[in-house]
Each structure stands twice: as C-alpha cells, then as structure tokens.
Amino acid sequence: MSSSLTIIGAGLAGSEAAWQAAEAGVSVVLYEMRPQRPTPVHKTGNCAELVCSNSMGSNQDSSAPFLLKQELRNLDSLVIRSGDKNSVPAGKALAVDRDLFSEEITRTLEQHPNITLKHEEVTEIPMEGPVIIATGPLTSPVFSEKLSQLLGQDYLYFYDALSPIIDAQSIDTDKTFFASRYGKGDADYLNCGMSRDQYEKFIDELLKAEKVSLKEFEKPIYFEGCMPIEVLADRGPQTLAFGPM
Ligand SMILES: Cc1cc2nc3c(=O)[nH]c(=O)nc-3n(C[C@H](O)[C@H](O)[C@H](O)COP(=O)(O)OP(=O)(O)OC[C@H]3O[C@@H](n4cnc5c(N)ncnc54)[C@H](O)[C@@H]3O)c2cc1C
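Above: inputs. Below: predicted complex with flavin-adenine dinucleotide.
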C-alpha cells in the first residue's frame, strides 16, 4: 500500500483535506488539472478558486452557517482562515476577495513540506493507497466517465442556476441605494427599488422570457436553497417579494 495520501482536485474540499492531512503528518500528493486542463468556469490555475459567489454565508453568531465556520476555525481550517484574512465588506456575511483568497491557499499548500502539488489531470481512479476524490461538480469528462463506471450513472447529477454578474459601472446610481440586508451589519448591498407596477411588469416579463434550454444530462430537480429566479416566480406572483427580493 502506498504510504502517501492521494487527493484528486484542489478545489475547496481537496485543498482543505490536503492541509488537514499534511498538518497531521501525512504525506500528500495533491492533483489539480488546472491551468493545463481548464474547466468551463474556472479562470486560473489556483487552488480553491471560487467560481461563482464570493460569499461563504452568514457570519452572524448563532446562525447555522456561522457555527459550521466556527467549528472549522477550531480545527484550524486553511479555507476559513484564508477567508477571514481576505474578507471584504458584506454585512454579516463572510465574503472574500476571490483572488487573494485562492492565491493564499495555493501559496500555503505549495510551501507545505508534506504536500506535493501536481498540475495534472487524473484520468484513472488510483487503485493503490488511500485516495480522496474531490473533483467537484466540474469533474473532467474522462474522469467523470470512470466514476460513472464505478458508481453507476444514476449517482452522478449536477444542476445549478446561473448567477448573473453586473458590471458596477453600468448601474445608474440615481435609481439605486446602498443598505444593509434586513437591517443587519453595514450598508454593503446595492438595492434597486421598484413600484408595485414595475414589480408586476418585471414578474410578467420574467415568466414570458426565453429560457436556457436544459442539456441532455440536466434534470429540473432544484436545490431549494438556490433556486432559479424564474422557477421561484412561477410559484406565485408574491414569491420573489417575500423571498430574495
Ligand atoms: C457554475 C457553478 C456555480 C456555482 N456557484 C456556487 C455558489 O455561488 N455558491 C456555492 O456555495 N457553491 C457554488 N457552486 C458549487 C461549488 O462548485 C462548490 O460550492 C465548491 O466549489 C465545491 O468545492 P469542491 O472542492 O467540491 O469542487 P471545486 O471547487 O470545483 O474543485 C474541484 C477541483 O477538481 C479539479 N478537477 C476536476 N477534475 C479533475 C481531474 N480529473 N484531475 C485533476 N483535477 C480535477 C477542478 O479543476 C477543481 O479545481 C457552483 C458550481 C458551479 C459549477
């Protein structure tokens, strides 16, 4: 049996696993395919690159996301420590500067004496020694095929709502205002007020709008914590008003 731990994928999970094992004295070989083999959404070759939201959720004590982060802090988590160090204003949430965050994690892993970071795509499931597979939702197609042979296609499934990013320069600040979320924390969020008529027209247009068609492998089974806006709107005209808007 190999004496080292193999970790495939240096995203959030793989980076943290590598750090924890290495700190416990285990010799780790960590594989990350980027930048040689990019994914459709990652932009860099850094470990723990965030691909969408830069928020790690609430940092308000007594909330469940806070307690989870606090447990990770107690365990000397590299991901949370780097998040705390590179945080940006976001009211009571922990949001991070995504570049500084991933650069710091990459540097720390590269410098760890127990970690060998290899920028290579893994195309076969290793049969030797302990292995952690942490290739995430954008597992490379070749490796994904190997996983589906091992597990069966029924167990591999991913569906995600797109999160549009708006260029700050394009926003008319005469029509928007900064405020906190639900009166908590600082005024870090930009709000766009609507009258009742505007809101109703918005919902109307949203429901009529052309939708991105589903890929063959996508099934419209949604994670209720992160729903596409048009699916929420379809549940009733007030759903968005009492939810994210
Ligand atoms: C488009 C999109 C938007 C998302 N938005 C959010 C969001 O807003 N908030 C949220 O919490 N979550 C979001 N997620 C989910 C997000 O991916 C996870 O929260 C988080 O990144 C999962 O961490 P991970 O370590 O499992 O995977 P990842 O962070 O994706 O890391 C997996 C790593 O494995 C590498 N890899 C893949 N295949 C191989 C291979 N064969 N060999 C070597 N390396 C390989 C990849 O390059 C990647 O670096 C989103 C995902 C996607 C795809």
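The chain has a mean pLDDT of 91.
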